[in-house]
Amino acid sequence: MNRKQLVTLLVLGLVLGGLGVLAYKKRQNPYEESIRGMGEKVVPNFPINDVASITLKTRDASVNLAKKDDVWTVQERGGYPANFNNISELLRKVWDLKVTSPVRVGPSRLPQLELLPPDKSPSTLVEFKKADGKPVTSLLLGAKHMKEGRGDSQFGGGSFPDGRYVMVGTNLQTIALVSEPFTSAEPKPQDWLHKEWFKVERLKSISVVSTNGSNTWHVARESETNDWKVVDLKPGEQPDSGKITSVTGALSYPSFNDIATNTAPEHTGMNQPTATAKLETLDGFVYDVKVGGKTGEDYFVQVATSGNIQKERTPGKDEKPDDKDKLDKEFKEKREKQEEKLKNEKAFGTWTYVVSKWTIDPLLKERKDLLQEKKEEPQTTEKKEESKPAAETKPGADFLNLPKVDATAKPEPKPESKPEGK
């Protein structure tokens, strides 16, 4: 073999070797090595305080949460205040999210992990933006990692989510399994609403006017120590204290399920309300509640709050200076709380709420449901036997159960006795 042939063989070997390396790399390229190690943060340096809007998207739904004037709102519900606790919890989870297990994956495995965009996969895309609209980052929530429960457990068998596959942006090298399943990260607007509503305290009276006349009633009391009474009792009516108590707790701790998106009176039934109620408290708060039509098992409800808060305290007789200063301070603090409560509750008057049936039912009771049931006297169906005059009794031995003797009858003659032997 001459030198020329040797050089040719060497060049050919190098070419074949290079092609082999390229082929190997081509086979390996679809599988990206994770750039996050176990225990490392999935989103390093996440600027949690710069986030001013969050969007959650799935194939069929989306929700936009935005901060306006330092208040988080739900855009799909007309800018109604959002539940800040839920939002801060989501932000904290993303900021603190750590890799449980790095995942070496290529494009072919993305469908299996549900890490394709929401229009191609049952994934959830969470986008974070700044106040100027510039993106901060995005997190794709893929398939949940399921863990099998113990069959002999007191809670029974079955599986439950103990983690989730996630990807930052579209970078396959950030795919990881995390221990947070993000079960509450759903694009349901009603789940992100701030559900704290008005609260009726120290109730003084409730009056209800219904389209059904039998549902119109009014109960009241003079103070917290007085008994509740049904106003304008009719003759023969007796109030039932137990039944009255069942309605006096109405709207003490109310809540709602959603905010109406279509507020047209014809749609909500506010053009012809099912009932209107006025609730007055001992502190001067007045709640005018309007119950509209039904949506499924729920009712449309509107609430208008007003109040007449006492501005000055009337000192008691023989009040000492030290006591006066203390009582004045307590009165001022109470008044400021009441004024803040009134301000917050007035804001609810611009919305139409979707409220559960069990919350509204106490206001829809009939008047008879507050009264004692009338006891009807039993009617006898048997006819009384006609009294017959007692038979005339004659003096004698009749009462001794002896045979009666007719005093006018002549005695029968006795047979004559014949002497023996004649």
Description:
- The chain has 422 residues and is of the alpha+beta class.
- It folds into two domains: 48-185; 203-370, no CATH class.
- It is 20% helix and 24% strand.
- The chain has seven helices and 17 strands.
- The chain has helices at 3-28, 84-95, 110-113, 241-248, 265-268, 321-346, 357-360, and strands spanning 53-57, 62-68, 71-74, 80-81, 101-102, 124-129, 135-148, 159-168, 176-178, 203-210, 217-220, 229-230, 258-259, 275-281, 285-295, 298-307, 353-355.
- A nine-stranded antiparallel β-sheet has the order 4-3-2-1-6-7-8-9-5, with no helix packed on it. Strands 12-11-10-14-15-16-17-13 form an eight-stranded antiparallel β-sheet.
- Strand 1 and strand 2 form a beta hairpin.
- It is elongated and about 130 Å long.
- The model is unreliable at 393-402 and 417-422 (pLDDT under 50).
